[in-house]
Write a structure and sequence with these properties.
The chain is an alpha/beta fold and 346 residues long. It has helices at residues 23-35, 65-83, 97-103, 105-108, 111-120, 127-143, 146-152, 163-182, 197-200, 203-212, 234-238, 264-267, 271-276, 282-302, 323-332, and strands at residues 47-56, 86-96, 218-221, 225-226, 242-243, 245-249, 257-262. 45% of the residues lie in helices and 12% in strands. It starts with 22 loop residues before the first helix and ends in a 14-residue tail after the last helix. Bound molecules: zinc ion.
Length: 346
């Protein structure tokens, strides 16, 4: 018999916290991750079909059918041009975002994903998780060379090697942006991070879903990924938790990986984005989003690692939300053709 609202039989997306990150679950996570096969080489001499599924949050702006079709065309052309792979995008339908995530609840309840989500998801209304956020930022600052850190710092008073001052700088910037992002409005009265929707906007939940899905290779959502976790790299911290796209291991498809690409950071007319991102010219909107897709497909097809400081190439993650400047820099510069590190697992 079912106990109503329990983790076992609720139909809602299960909420995972530190209590789920037990030592037992951690061991299961490590075993699970070890068992994920290493990424194999994908020959560019084969034509690949990419199954693409749209995951829709109907509270927020979305593309028309024509725009989606034009985006698919742009992405497949750009993957050919920038990555040297011949691909076609095949639409396999669309689904409401809450429906999609509820459907994954068995996945989220696997002990290894309970650990992964419970360990990394930071609930910033809790003091303990705010302290963990501070530690996460301190670690990111300590691990990042000054040549890269200074790209993100506008305060000229802050000096190299002053780790505490740099940490405070990013910590307070993160909290300001994080709370501004939480107030981003959709159609009518909706804001981000309401109830169950918050979970659909979190890196860790998407990550677990991408591991387990057999429905598609590329997910495009008109929502956003914008939360706090203890694995954030500096460029995500700098954006207040926004991740434009994720490439994650996948247990079922031939690519051994799957991607989610988010549209909201590119198309939202909310004042937060108008000021943090600025205006993207209409004529450049699809090329800019497509360039972000090329970045993710560089991870997926070539198994490229993450970069922040290479010369002009889509493999550099954008420093902030100035996507159009990032795009223009790639287009205007002499394309980098040197070596790029690859990954054995995402
Ligand atoms: Zn990346």
């Amino acid at each position: 018999m079912c106990i109503v609202f329990s983790l076992v039989c609720s139909r809602e997306i299960p909420v995972m916290g530190k209590k789920n990150a037990t030592r037992e679950n951690k061991e299961k996570w490590e075993k699970f991750y070890d068992s994920v096969p290493e990424l194999k080489y994908l020959s560019p001499n084969v034509r690949y079909e990419i199954r693409v599924k749209r995951i829709i949050d109907s509270r927020f702006d979305n593309f028309s059918e024509e725009k989606y079709q034009a985006l698919y065309k742009q992405i497949s052309d750009d993957i050919g041009y920038y990555l040297g792979y011949n691909v076609s995008l095949k639409d396999v339908g669309s689904e409401d975002i809450i429906h999609f995530f509820r459907k994954q609840r068995k996945v989220f309840k696997q002990p290894w994903f309970q650990y992964m989500i419970g360990q990394h998801f930071l609930h910033l209304d809790r003091d303990e998780d705010r302290r963990r956020l501070h530690k996460t930022i301190e670690k990111a600052v300590t691990d990042t060379p000054w040549e890269i850190l200074k790209l993100y710092i506008t305060d000229k008073e802050i000096k190299n090697k002053d780790i505490p001052a740099i940490t405070e700088y990013f910590y307070s910037r993160f909290l300001t942006k994080y709370s501004a992002i939480g107030n981003i409005k959709g159609n009518v009265k909706y804001i981000l991070r309401q109830g169950e929707y918050e979970l659909t906007q979190h890196y860790t939940y998407w990550s677990a879903a991408l591991y387990a899905t057999s429905e598609a290779d590329l997910f495009i959502t008109n929502s956003i990924i914008a939360g706090a976790d203890d694995q954030m790299p500096l460029y995500v911290i700098n954006r207040g938790g926004i991740t434009s796209g994720i490439t994650e291991n996948n247990l079922h498809n031939k690519f051994q990986g799957a991607i989610v690409l988010t549209l909201m950071p590119f198309i939202s007319g909310d004042s937060y984005f108008n000021s943090a991102r600025g205006n993207i010219y209409d004529s450049l909107l699809l090329p800019v989003i497509s360039m972000m897709a090329v970045h993710e497909f560089g991870h997926l097809l070539h198994r490229y690692d993450e970069y922040y400081d290479l010369p002009a190439t889509p493999q550099n993650a954008p420093v902030d939300l100035k996507y159009q400047d990032w795009y223009q820099h790639i287009i205007d510069g002499k394309m980098y053709s040197g070596p790029i590190r690859t990954l054995k697992k995402y």
